[in-house]
Amino acid sequence: xxxxxxxxxxxxxxxxxxxxxxxxxxxxxxxxxxxxxxxxxxxxxxxxxxxxxxxxxxxxxxxxxxxxxxxxxxxxxxxxxxxxxx
Length: 86
Prior knowledge:
The two termini are 15 Å apart. The radius of gyration is 12 Å and the shape is globular. The model has no long low-confidence stretch (mean pLDDT 87). The chain has 86 residues and is of the alpha+beta class. It has two helices and five strands; from the N terminus they run ββαββαβ. The relative contact order is 0.28. Strands 1, 2, 3, 4 and 5 form a five-stranded antiparallel sheet that branches.
C-alpha cells in the first residue's frame, strides 16, 4: 500500500528484537503526538511496516521510543527503537 518497507526493532536485555505487531498497531492507530504523519503507516507483522515518504525513519523511531517508554514497555528504562528502510 505504501512505498517504503520498514523494519522496526527494539532493544531488550542487550538483544535487538522485532517490535511486536501489537505495539506497532497501537502506536500507529492511537498515538498521542497529534502528528498526522504517523497516520501514514501500515503495520504488517512483528518488526515490519509500510510507510509513506512523509515519515522519516528517525521521526518514527523517536516517536515510537517515547511512546513505548511512557507505557512502561522498558520496565522503568527508556526503550530504544531502531528503524531501517528495507
